[in-house]
Write the structure tokens for this entry.
Amino acid sequence: MAGLIKLYVAANATDAHMLVALLAHEGIEAVVRGDGFVPLQGGHLFNMETRPSVWVLDDEYRQRAEVLAGEFARRGQAEEGDEWRCSCGEQVEAQFLECWNCGRGRPTFDVCR
Ligand SMILES: [Zn+2]
């Protein structure tokens, strides 16, 4: 019986569950660990200590899962670093969090940071 294999440490629960969904789509069984952990005291720990991780259930899928996780991680970085398109239609450079044309916020901006 194969043990759990740690595949990926996610930025947040959404990130982790997106990767699990992606793996499931490829027929790879994976689970999220740690996304249910919320400290009862010391609320300031919340953002630092809740980075969930994604684990693969079967060693058989490890290589394929690592490739997919790598692609997934690169895609996430690309989204953060690339230009984005505002709902008004303007292309806005990556370093701007608001549209210079209409002032709307970047739609994919992670407010947790
Ligand atoms: Zn705009």
Notes: The mean pLDDT is 79. The chain has two domains: 5-81, 84-113.
